[in-house]
Amino acid sequence: MTRPISMLSGLLFLTALCTLGACSSSPSDPIVCDASARAGITVTIKDAETMAPLAATARGVVRDGAYVDSLILVASDTRAAAFERPGTYSVEVRLTGYQNFNTSNVRVTAGTCHVNAVVVPALLLKARS
Questions:
Q1: Among 96, 88, 3, which residue's Cα sits nearest to residue 41?
Q2: 89 vs 63: CA distance, rounded Å
Q3: From which residue to which does the signal peptide run (predicted)?
Q4: Are 47 and 86 contained in the same domain?
Q5: pLDDT band at 118, cuts 50/70/90?
Q6: Owning domain of residue 85
Q7: How confident is the model at residue 27 (pLDDT cuts 50, 70, 90)?
């Protein structure tokens, strides 16, 4: 009865190592990828003056040609989009009372298992009255 438990423990340990990036890429030891979806773009959204997080009430989109994806809230100061989708994006963030934030040529590249994520800092300036 001890053997199945130790085999299971070993399998869990190897899975954890692979998830943390400890897997080798040699032909005799192929890379094992997990099934999670990673955001290609994360946007940290803060007030430019106070650095207060604004993502909860801000809205935004990313665009790559005809592809458009809404930024979804993932933390108090962060929204994300373009899950597992390489491309060259423009990013737009809007929030009432602030100037719009726009940037372009945000390149998300394909990695071995997931996209290579890009973080875009969006420091929003208060709108002029």
A1: 88
A2: 5
A3: 1-21
A4: yes
A5: very high
A6: 39-124
A7: low
